[in-house]
Amino acid sequence: MAGADRRLSREEIEARVRALGEWFHNIDLDGVPTAPDHFLGDYPAAKWRSFSDALPRDLRGMTVLDIGCNAGFYSIEMKRRGADRVLGLDHDDVYLRQARFAADSLGVDIEFRKLSVYEVGQLGERFDIVLFMGVLYHLRYPLLALDLIRRHVIGDRLIFQSMQRGEPSILPLEPDYPFSESEIFEEHGYPRLHFVEHCYSHDPTNWWIPNRACVEAMLRSAGFSIIGHPEEEVYLCQIAPTPCEAGHENGETVEVADVRDGR
Question: Domain check: are 98 and 142 in the same one?
Answer without folding.
Answer: no
